[in-house]
Design brief:
mainly alpha
Length: 370
């Protein structure tokens, strides 16, 4: 999945570095390239060449704090991490007043609730899209070493702004707004790097729009072909629609697809843990791995938790967790894990484990169905 902040920082710094080597002899350029990689691995803060590159370098560092350290921090570390990240983002904005990643992420830290941040994103989206497309067009017209890559990177802050607006619209119960923003994002993101279809699918499921899901699947067919033609977000969305129209056979079949496709799927569908949303973007995970299903199920809280049941689950969430197939899968996974742990103990090895972080988000209900 897209938008790894550290890799993007590397690409941005690399483009500027490549420009500095134009006209150099090949052997000197090769030696310099090796030195660049070593300096980047050391997180050399002097490597970015322009204020815009320095600003994004600070954004990448703040993203690592907020998205990959904060969820696992102890209570005594949370305030420090947030303060450090906020300071980095403010410094990024002082270097580059149009560093929209920093502007967006700092408001997320400062906003009082989902609605306030939604309004901030909604109020600024037209400016961000306009500036992003202008930067993209300038990069394409430039004479740098890789104009297409430079154009792609120039557009990414705009794509992330739209992606978060689509997600916040969904969480705040503005389902038609989420569909509208997702469509806009898909039109701008030809390569599909923002995974706009994931949020789009859940918004359509909230509207119980099966035909819309069919059209979305067709529109994103090229992007999903490498996944075997689907993804867990689309599977969960279709399962929710089938459940809503009381087609339990189809809903159960789709649950079975998830169970067969992912490691520990039974435990994930049973637990339905919620994770903290990524501040930089949706967390980067590999397709068809356990973490991808964890992330999809977490974002599916808007579907799974609709209509509270006595077990504090939603109607769909309780139905999924109570499926005999899910219960059998959980028992099988527990037995397999126990056997694996026993094998490691007999070999003198040591297993590792830990709780999956849960930030929790409050999903607003009462959205737009009509």
């Amino acid at each position: 999945m897209a938008f790894d902040p550290r890799y993007e920082d590397y690409l941005r710094s690399g483009i500027a570095f490549a420009r500095s080597l134009e006209g150099a002899d090949p052997f000197g350029a090769a030696r310099a390239a090796m030195g660049f990689r070593r300096r980047f691995e050391r997180q050399d803060d002097d490597l970015p060449a322009t204020d815009a590159d320095r600003a994004f370098h600070l954004v990448a560092r703040a993203a690592e704090l907020l998205d990959y350290e904060l969820p696992f921090a102890g209570d005594d570390e949370v305030a420090r991490i947030r303060d450090d990240a906020s300071e980095m983002l403010s410094e990024a904005i002082s270097l580059d007043g149009s560093c929209y990643d920093a502007i967006r992420m700092r408001d997320l830290l400062r906003s009082d609730g989902f609605d306030a941040h939604y309004r901030f994103l909604s109020d600024g989206v037209d400016e961000v899209v306009a500036r992003g497309t202008e930067a993209r067009d300038r990069a394409l017209a430039g004479q740098g070493p890789d104009p297409r890559l430079a154009a792609d990177l120039a557009m990414r802050p705009c794509l992330r702004w739209l992606a978060e607006l689509a997600t916040r619209s969904l969480v705040c119960g503005r389902y038609r707004r989420s569909v509208e923003v997702s469509r806009r994002l898909l039109a701008l993101d030809e390569a599909g790097v923002a995974d706009a279809g994931f949020t789009y699918a859940f918004a359509l499921a909230k509207l119980e729009d099966d035909h819309g899901l069919d059209r979305l699947a067709e529109a994103t067919r090229d992007a999903t072909r490498q996944r075997g033609g689907t993804d867990p977000w689309m599977l969960i969305a279709r399962m929710a629609c089938a459940h809503a129209r009381l087609d339990m056979q189809e809903a159960r079949r789709l649950a079975g697809v998830l169970l067969g496709a992912y490691p520990h799927a039974g435990s994930i569908l049973m637990g339905q843990d919620e994770l903290s949303d990524g501040a930089f973007a949706r967390l980067a995970v590999d397709p068809w791995q356990e973490d991808e299903l964890v992330l999809a199920v977490s974002e599916a809280a808007v579907l799974l938790q609709e209509g509270r049941e006595y077990e504090c689950r939603g109607t769909l969430g309780a139905w999924v967790a109570g499926l005999p197939e899910v219960e059998r899968a959980v028992a099988r996974e527990a037995a397999e894990d126990s056997g694996a742990e026993g094998g490691r103990a007999r070999r003198g090895g040591r297993g590792s484990g830990g709780d999956r972080g849960s930030g929790g988000t409050d999903a607003a209900e009462g959205g737009e169905r009509a």
